[in-house]
Amino acid sequence: MTRQAAATVLCKELRQYAATGTPYLVIAGFLVLAAVWFFWFYDFLAADEASLRGYFAAFPVLYIVIIPALTMRCWVEERRAGTLELLRSAPLGDRAIVLGKFAGVMSIMALTLALTLAVPMTVVPLGAFDSGEIVAEYLGAVLLASASVALGMLVSCRLRSQVAAYVSTLLALVVLNAAHQVPLFVNLPAGLADLLRAVSLEYQFRGFTRGVLDTGAMGYYLVLTVLALYLCELRIGVAEE
Amino acid sequence: MIEVHGLSKSYRDLRAVDDVSFDVGERQLLGLLGPNGAGKTTLLRMLVGTLIPDAGDARLQGCSVRTRPTEAKAAIGYLPEKAPCYEELLVVEQLRFAAGAHGLAGSRRAEAVEQVSHRCGLAAVLHRPVRELSLGFRRRLGIAQALVHDPPILILDEPHSALDPNQMREIRSLLREVAREKVVILSTHLLNEVEALCDRVVLLSKGRVAGAGATRELSVAQRAARRFRMRVRAPEKLELDTLLREQPAVDCAQVLERGDRNKPWTLDVVLSGNQADGSTLFDWAVQSNCRLLALNEISSDLEQVFGELTEQGTGDD
Question: What is the ipTM for the molecules in this complex?
């Protein structure tokens, strides 16, 4: 029942996305910025390496900018228009509403990542690329997107302005991505430095860019996703009080 | 069909709904009346399951909103205040979503959308974006999405607000038709709509039930408190409002413009009692040696009259 209800919400979300310009801008912005970074700043063609590590290294930073743009309207628009009340009065259940919305944003992210395949398809004939590494990089990119989207939905679920939702999510993602860099500037006990590295989204992503399927990192992203969505489910009801 | 027992809800220090109980039988159209801030919307939100009551319970077709919220929600069609819609969608997409959200799929959903669009007069605008609809069509769409899954209970929060008289008439006739086969709760502050549509009325004031009964009883109550605006010239220095308040038939006298020997007074006077009418004020003016320049019954400001009724119902709590 939850699956069918979530699918109903997902269809509605996708129709809404199709009718607004935001996803198109986000997808185009991501593709252009990632390509500019890879071919211009990273200078892949001059680097003489058969690896997309440089390309995927930009993903955590790009996610920080684009994911808040997708999650900021999830709850704020529903609340502003009064449709959240309509949604919650239907026998869908808060879990299905959260999952449907999450699946909606992840669909846009999946489409974005699918379009980035143009880059490997272009450069792979130029050298001996490791296909296993590319698969690991894409798997990591999906898991990182999933955790970031869930966090964005959680951060913005009680806010009433899209600007506040965007800025709050951006700040939350900056903190969680840059956590591992704190020990570089501040002298911390080894245990705390390890903890900061363990919770850093960007640090956990590094293994995937080297072609390593790190089960610890995969587990971390999945736990973060499930926890954020669960808290989101609890909070949307409270936010209406 | 609907049983409400001791529902209460507070927002921090504010008691929005306080121990409200009533029930509604089959094919009844119940008017939930109250001035703004009386707790109508909070009460409806508890009935439709978007707010959890602090105390009490409600059963919709035997399903408790506390213990079986999904089943209770499935029995309801709900139109929230301001009839919210997804602006980006087409009318048909909005209706398909509403049907899908209530578990209809495939050919059953298509059939339900087609039927409800005809019933609510939306067939001509089905493929137009919601953002291009007029206010009247938006209300129709709101009612259509509440009806699309053919629920036994329909809950409508202020369906008439911001509509022009023609649109109000259209919505009224649609509701009359719907009420023949469903239980309808209609929340409004418009007494004339309640009189025209509802079998029974629950009056809410400051979160409490200030009165409940058949609509006819409310009409009597309304006639029992009639408001007049009068312009009077007093021959000498008199406090006309004080003099008026001393009359047994006068419930309330409010000075809008204070007069003197050269300038007439303008007052609003509320009369109580079934026998009191304009002649009571006319007789008073003659006996007081005042000259009555104008006397009009104020019948359009029903909300104001209702406000006074509900104030009386709850006292000063």
Answer: 0.87
pLDDT on residue B246 = 85
What residues of B are in contact with residue A94 (Cβ under 8 Å)? none
Q: Please measure the distance between the N-terminal and C-terminal CA atoms of chain B and give it in whole angstroms.
A: 32
Domain spans, chain A: 2-239
Chain A nearest CA to B149, separation (Å)? 11
CA-nearest residue to B149 within chain A is A90
Instruction: Tell me if residue B228 falls in helix, strand or coil.
Output: strand
Q: What is the pLDDT of residue B303?
A: 52
Q: Give the largest CA-CA distance in chain B.
A: 81
Write out residues in chain B with pLDDT < 70, as ranges: 162, 216-225, 273-276, 299-317
Predicted local confidence at residue B301, as pLDDT: 44
Nearest to B231 by CA among B195, B265, B257: B265
Interface contact A8-B81, CB threshold 8 A: no
Q: What angle do CA B52, B77, B159 make, to 5 degrees?
A: 95
Span A33-45, mean pLDDT?
89
Dihedral sign, Cα of residue B171, residue B20, residue B23, residue B145: positive
Inspect the interface and report whether the beta carbons of B86 and A81 lie closer than 8 Å.
yes
For B74, name the nearest residue in chain A, comparing CA atoms only.
Answer: A91
